[in-house]
């Protein structure tokens, strides 16, 4: 059988990954769980390959790790080694990594420990915190293929601006993570690294496009991760994997050195933001560490807006969006929204229902603006190497108009986008609502290959408002989430509604999956949105934090 040229190129990326794996920490293949085992979260503990101390380290939040290192109870080196060991096990089961940075990470940790020993203080707010990084965030002297075979040989000249700032804050980068072909799936599969799996249920996707991050964080391969988001690529994986994610308003976090095929696209701005397995506190730690360094001094597209402390207020008004008017959520998601409303009301927080406003129209606008050239650049990237498009790539490309937009058509869509933003903002004000709680997706984590509907997250990208994903503390339940007679009589309103509703054949398909909530705020109210998400979680989960599974 003849090996095609694109497959030879893709193999270079696989070789890079395989050569970077620290072999001494691999689990023997005969000790791995069977491929039929869905939930593999307990493997690090059951395998006996990590010490009890390493297990405790990898189960702590980033905030707590910094505190422990500041007290001298932990060293940066032992923290980094613990997460590296767990990452190797995680990759064997989930295929989430594109490259391990073990030697560099351990050397960096030793430097931090030497600094602490000499000075008696931490070098910065992220001292010694291992951070996993989505692959298309550029590293100096490292390849950056962005999920395209055509870019397997592309090497970066410098670190992304965000990485430079996190480094100054004391972070350690130990592993790079997988993303989908063309970066536009709510799944993570490409022709180089392959498919990434969800450790909670390996028949389900960890989401995308930051799905490598989602899987890694759920398995506790790092306490903080870097994702990017132009339609839900932080929040989807956070929701599917039972963690936390934050999409800031564009212009807050630095984007220089983050690589995409359509560089210079100004129609819908992608953003970069934090993801984590443990708490909102860690997302805020990340945001503050970055923005306190005033990144706008070097990246002039950023807004010179310092990070401020925001306290959650119980006198806020929260709206529940039960349905976006296009696609009905699955029973587990509706149950989580219902529980959230009941608990918030019981806590004395004002809760109202949110009538969705023109969400179908909003999708028409943003889907056209994703690909103003009819995905011409992305298709050309595939043709350059000869690699075949994956099914979800073809699905995403179909969102665009059949032919490239003219300048006038693009300008008209820009006007529609901006008018829609103003109209939606006015609704926040006239309805007296501070924050909206909504689904992240019609269901919980999607079955592999079935993640088609983005607009529960993409609507907030179109509006360019901050949004945070948090665990509800609930998981799919065989009894509580069974289809009722009323559910079975439901008549879908449109083709998308029918497609998504028919996927829910019952809770068995989604065994063990966590149920997430999304909290959206108003433009540039990033700090307030995180504070509101913290309060919502505190109330809904009775003070608990972290994953529910």
From TrEMBL:
Recall the GO molecular function terms of this protein's record: amidase activity
* Enzyme Commission number(s): 3.5.1.4
Which residues does substrate bind?
183, 209, 230-233
The cross-references to Gene3D superfamilies, in alphabetical order and at most eight, read:
Amidase signature (AS) domain
Give start-end ranges for the coiled-coil region(s). Answer: none
Q: What chemistry does it catalyse, as a reaction equation?
A: a monocarboxylic acid amide + H2O = a monocarboxylate + NH4(+)
Q: Ranges for the Amidase domain?
A: 78-530
What keywords sit in the KW lines? Answer: Hydrolase
List the catalytic residues. Answer: 134 (charge relay system), 209 (charge relay system), 233 (acyl-ester intermediate)
Protein family per UniProt: Belongs to the amidase family.
Could you identify this protein by its name?
Answer: amidase
Q: Which organism is it from?
A: Penicillium argentinense
